[in-house]
Amino acid sequence: MLLAMKEPYVVMKDIHKTYPDGTVALRGVDLEIYPGEILGLLGENGAGKSTLMKILSGFIKPTKGEIYVEGKRVKFSSSRDALARGIAMVHQVFTLVPNMTALENIILGTGKGSEGVLQALTPLDFDFGRRQIEELTSKLGLKIPLDTPVESLSLGERQRIEIIKALSRGTKVLILDEPTTFLTPMEVSELFNFVKRFKEQGGSVVFITHKIKEALEITDRIVVLRKGAVAGQLKTGDATPEKLAELMVGKEVDLEALTHLERMTITGETILKVEELWVNNDMGVPAVKGVSFEVRAGEVFGIAGVEGNGQNELIEAVTGLRKIEKGKVYLNGREVTNRSVIEMYKSGLSHIPGDRERYGLILDFTVMENSIIGRQWEPSFLKGSRIDWEKVRKYTEHLVARFNVVAPRIIAPAKSLSGGNRQKLLVGRELSRESSLIVAVHPTKGLDIASTLYVRELLLEARNAGKAVLLVSADLEEILQLSDRIAVMYEGKLVAQGKTSDFTLEEIGMLMGGVALQKAPKTT
């Protein structure tokens, strides 16, 4: 093995992390990072991947364990300490100043004590900084509009700014945390090309992901974490999707089932109709601009798009969470424009929100209480005018068993559940409603492979039973797999609509990035 012939640049030994609330995130993890390699850190949400790398990059301290860089033991008190040893992390949530240009963001914080290409930079020496950054971007093949305010740039461009910002400080180990989450397929390809070029120049990349396909495509070696411990590690050439899935989940997984879900052809009347909808964002600026579409009984209508192009505002408006400025919404033939959430539920809506902690669950409420939120007025849960908690208890026990929600007790607070189990509780509650329309936003977020398959099967089961499903997902494969028809959203508009079979993956990626096709599919 080539890597065995080199000395590791980083060694992490017996790393433990227990948070003040008692949550154990890491349980004795050993990890080595070699020069000139792309290391895949693979695992389900909550496996401990990000926590481990936040420790390495100085953002948090381990409860126990040792870190060695170039053979010397180190202790990091901050990210600046880690950066001084050549280790930097690019997070999923960017830390850029929106109204400053790309160049200003990259230079921000440099000066005395800085490392890397900007080490001699004074706060006002922008000409020198520009020359150095242009040379670096050219060397690495990353294109960035340096004089454009960050707020005007795509998420892919913002990510490149964060990467260049890190590399301009002399980074030798670059940690990328779920870097493809908000990227179009075209931007993913560009990112992978950069990662390979950085590796060829002797740099090391830790590529954090929960996507098996990505890990197999871009890495040299893969370490799999499960429940805060190393479940296994192997050279990428020796890995298979099945082997990695089993390491991630702890049991054999039928990956074929994820791509071969049964569906029936049964399209009925229009359940949801949206006409020329205009919706503002929190700043009062239009985020949804004249959007129109229909969702019919017995179909899944998927909306694809890079996060931040108006999908959240659209869904909030349709479900009663945000004011509609112009346009109309019809549900089951009745106008429901600007109706309240309760009225929407009573009209036949089920909603799996993308932000479960903000809109889906009340974490201080018990599992039992959360199981009937939005349904507490239904006669099946009442005795006279009061809630019959014995009925609720029986219902919750059935719900927890059916959707495999792992909870200490049904009277335990929802905050005691893991992220994946919170999601299963929410999905179970919403899919158990007697509804005609299911609005599902990132429905498998935080779920392991087996649970992802189960939720997707449930959505198709609802569709096959004649319900309408409006699906928004950051997982393009999920959109393609589940949807009968697809719309692509870009800058607040639906730039194309059509049957799923009318699109290729490449075409969807181009549309998501704002590239108009000569013959974009139309509504069918």
Protein traits:
524 residues, alpha/beta, Rossmann fold, 4 domains, six-stranded mixed beta sheet, 24% strand, disordered N terminus, ABC_carbohydrate_import_ATPase
Structural topology:
Elements: E1 10-18, E2 24-33, E3 38-42, H1 49-56, E4 64-69, E5 72-74, H2 79-84, E6 87-90, H3 102-107, H4 126-140, H5 155-167, E7 173-177, H6 185-200, E8 204-209, H7 212-218, E9 221-226, E10 229-235, H8 241-249, H9 256-259, E11 270-280, E12 286-296, E13 299-304, H10 311-318, E14 326-331, E15 334-335, H11 341-346, E16 349-352, H12 356-360, H13 367-370, E17 382-383, E18 386-387, H14 389-402, H15 419-431, E19 437-441, H16 449-464, E20 468-472, H17 476-482, E21 485-490, E22 493-499, H18 505-512
Parallel strand pairs: 3-8, 3-9, 6-7, 7-8, 13-20, 13-21, 16-19, 19-20
Antiparallel strand pairs: 1-2, 1-4, 4-5, 9-10, 11-12, 11-14, 14-15, 17-18, 21-22
GO molecular function, one term: ATP hydrolysis activity
Pfam families: ABC_tran
Protein name: ABC transporter domain-containing protein
* Residue share in β-strands: 15-25%
Calculate the terminal CA-CA distance, rounded to whole Å. 54 Å
> How many separate helices?
18
Shape: globular
Strand order of the largest sheet: 6-7-8-3-9-10
The total beta strand count reads: 22
Helix content bin:
25-40%
- Count of individual domains: 4
Query: Over all CA atoms, what is the radius of gyration?
Result: 24 Å
**Which residue ranges are poorly predicted, with pLDDT under 50 across at least 5 consecutive positions?**
1-5
CATH architecture of the largest domain: 3-Layer(aba) Sandwich
Task: Give the overall average pLDDT.
Answer: 88
The CATH superfamily label of the largest domain reads P-loop containing nucleotide triphosphate hydrolases
